[in-house]
Design goal:
The chain has 361 residues and is of the alpha/beta class. The protein is 43% helix and 10% strand. It folds into 2 domains: 12-328, Rossmann fold, CATH 3.40.50; 330-361. The strands form 2 sheets. Strands 1-7-8-4-3-2 form a 6-stranded parallel sheet, with helices on both faces. Strands 5-6 form a two-stranded antiparallel sheet. Strand 5 and strand 6 form a beta hairpin. Helix 1 (34-59) crosses helix 2, helix 2 runs parallel beside helix 7 (229-244) and helix 5 (137-151) packs parallel to helix 6. The protein starts with 11 loop residues before the first strand and ends with a helix.
Length: 361
């Protein structure tokens, strides 16, 4: 028999709606109303300003090591706004805007990065998991949640965030395979910010895109301009609708750039140059979207100033609340783990308490 090409039913697309200058493709424009557009912009701006404030707190020794989301606001804000109340968000660790949209208090986000267990407490009535730092581990959690929704015959969907580095992990591929086999109501979003810490994504894979990895697992993939909030919104909305009607998972690759450090323990000048950063800075999502809103006369200088003032006050209130609770008893490190403390741990606590008392004399 002659060789013949195997026809594969899945597809991989590219989507961009809002170009780098803020000009929209009229045929692809989702034509969102002004209120929805301003909600998206406000969340993106809040994530950006909070991000900047948290970095300052870290540099001043008032918070722990922090992973910024600067430049990546578009995809997670769109997801946070589009998810329904009964849907699930399974974040990685750069999805501040989505968490705010879902009802997480900013102070809880600060507590997580400050090393307080309270930062992992999901707000009442919110179907989310807390921040996940171990790379790609959250993908398996997302599969379990999506499978449970399917098993219970709900129409709830789950969205799981991951980075380009996470696609090199086995957990990611196990989750993708399981989602495909069981046709789960799950949307995988890969924030391809170009680097897994210092390792360029092009050196992690021979694939031309990360979106095409969905093909091997039997479902569709789409690569979107991750700095284009409208493209992210449309792609995520379509994927959610597909999952909700029982047509299975989607993999979305949001092509973006990490404008800041990987974490505050990182020095990106060691592995990327200023010219590359400047090139991506010109494509960044917040300014691009703001230009579009001004062209539509939805945003002007007066409203921009008002938003900045409101957001500044919102962030200050959260920081003040965090700082008020930051001074805690060091012995709390021994609490909240065991109902009945093991003898060995009780002995360590007593030894530590004695050392603290000697120090205070």
């Amino acid at each position: 028999m002659p060789r013949k090409k195997i026809k594969i039913s899945t597809k991989v697309e590219w989507l961009s709606i809002l170009d780098e200058s803020g000009k929209v493709d009229a045929h692809l424009d989702p034509k969102l109303d002004a209120d929805r557009l301003l909600t998206l912009y406000r969340l993106m701006l809040t994530a950006r300003r909070a991000d900047e404030r948290i970095i300052k707190l870290q540099r001043q020794g008032r918070i722990g090591t922090y992973g910024p989301c600067r430049g990546q606001e578009a995809s997670h804000v769109a997801a946070g706004v589009l998810l329904g109340r009964n849907d699930w968000l399974i974040p990685s660790y750069r999805e501040l805007g989505a968490m705010l949209a879902r009802g997480w208090p900013l102070v809880r986000y600060l507590q997580f990065w400050g090393g307080f267990e309270e930062g992992n407490e999901v707000p009442e009535g919110v179907n989310d998991l807390p921040i996940s730092v171990p790379v790609a581990s959250q993908c398996l959690h997302a599969v379990g949640i999506a499978w449970a929704q399917q098993y219970r015959d709900t129409d709830n969907v789950a969205i799981c965030f991951n980075g380009d580095g996470g696609t090199s992990e086995g957990d990611f591929h196990e989750a993708m395979n399981f989602a495909g086999v069981y046709n789960l109501p799950l949307v995988f979003i890969i924030n391809n910010n170009q680097y897994a810490i210092s390792h360029p994504w092009g050196k992690q894979t021979r694939s031309e895109t990360l979106a095409q990895k969905a093909v091997a697992y039997g479902f569709d993939g789409i690569r979107v301009d991750g700095n284009d909030i409208l493209a992210c919104y449309v792609a995520i909305a379509e994927a959610i609708a597909k999952a909700r009607r029982g047509d299975g998972p989607t993999l979305i690759e949001a092509l973006t750039y990490r404008l800041a450090v990987h974490t505050t323990a990182d020095d990106p000048t060691k592995y990327r140059d200023d010219a590359e950063v400047a090139e991506w800075q010109a494509r960044e999502p917040l300014v691009r979207f703001g230009t579009y809103l001004r062209a539509r006369e939805i945003l002007d200088d007066a409203l921009a100033e008002e938003l900045e003032a409101d957001i500044g006050a919102f962030i200050k209130k959260a920081v003040d609340e965090y700082e008020a609770k930051r001074e805690t008893d060091p012995l709390d490190a021994f609490a909240y783990v065991y109902e009945t403390m093991p003898a060995e741990l009780a002995s360590q606590k007593a030894e530590f308490q004695a050392a603290l008392e000697r120090e205070r004399r």
